[in-house]
Backbone:
């Protein structure tokens, strides 16, 4: 079952216990809608300490629900997870890498008071992020290069997509270079952006080579994995190897 507590201002507390069923997910969905309709920002407490399992239809309903809430995550400054399960720590690390604007922390059941205190405080509103994507002049009609430095927002996509779409219309195949200075994730609403998803599918048939330069260490492994799954030649280069990346694309 799922129980909801929304008695504290700007805090929505969700407790999962025993077996979670589809009706429980529907209850949670209504509580989320009400909380975000009445509050600009909402901190979350998700108590999973007594959760044991979830029915198949509840799992499907939960997946749909969570996907539909991605655009609201920009309004969630803090999230406290109460759990002893190790996989939750790994999942939280992944979510934080994609959405670093959400301060996600894990608490043991005996630290519930600390979790409540953490969620009770709304941090100051962060200033609007500066543009994260900057186009780099390449001198080639079939090569697009950009620099990533920060958090990718809707405005960044609006800057880059017209250039990509124009080149896709003019060139049968193009090459891409991404220089990664700092990657602070993406705004959650982009995960449901229809035009961006459409562009990604379009790019599969148009991109010949994709060079990724710099970035965190795990990016090399991800590039190799994605390259094995897509009909695109992808390679990762260290920041010191940028000249090699340009040479590879122009060869």
Residues:
């Amino acid at each position: 079952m799922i129980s909801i507590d929304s008695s504290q201002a700007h805090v929505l507390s969700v407790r999962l216990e025993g077996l979670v069923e589809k009706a429980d997910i529907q209850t949670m969905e209504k509580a989320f809608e009400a909380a975000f309709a009445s509050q600009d920002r909402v901190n979350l407490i998700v108590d999973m300490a007594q959760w044991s399992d979830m029915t198949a239809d509840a799992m499907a309903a939960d997946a749909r629900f969570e996907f539909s809430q991605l655009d609201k995550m920009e309004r969630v400054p803090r999230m406290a997870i109460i759990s002893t399960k190790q996989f939750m720590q790994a999942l939280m690390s992944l979510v934080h890498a994609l959405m670093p604007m959400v301060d996600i922390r894990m608490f043991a059941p005996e630290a519930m008071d600390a979790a409540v205190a953490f969620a009770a405080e709304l941090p100051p509103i962060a200033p609007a992020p500066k543009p994260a994507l900057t186009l780099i002049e390449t001198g080639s009609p079939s090569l697009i290069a950009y620099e990533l430095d920060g958090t990718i927002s809707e405005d960044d996509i609006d800057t880059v997509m017209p250039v990509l779409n124009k080149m896709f219309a003019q060139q049968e195949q193009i090459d891409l270079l991404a220089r990664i200075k700092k990657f602070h994730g993406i705004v959650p609403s982009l995960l449901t952006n229809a035009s961006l998803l459409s562009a990604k599918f379009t790019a599969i048939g148009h991109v010949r080579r994709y060079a990724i330069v710099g970035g965190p260490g795990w990016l090399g492994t991800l590039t190799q994995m994605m390259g094995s799954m897509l009909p695109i030649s992808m390679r990762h280069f260290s920041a010191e190897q940028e000249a090699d990346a340009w040479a590879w694309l122009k060869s």
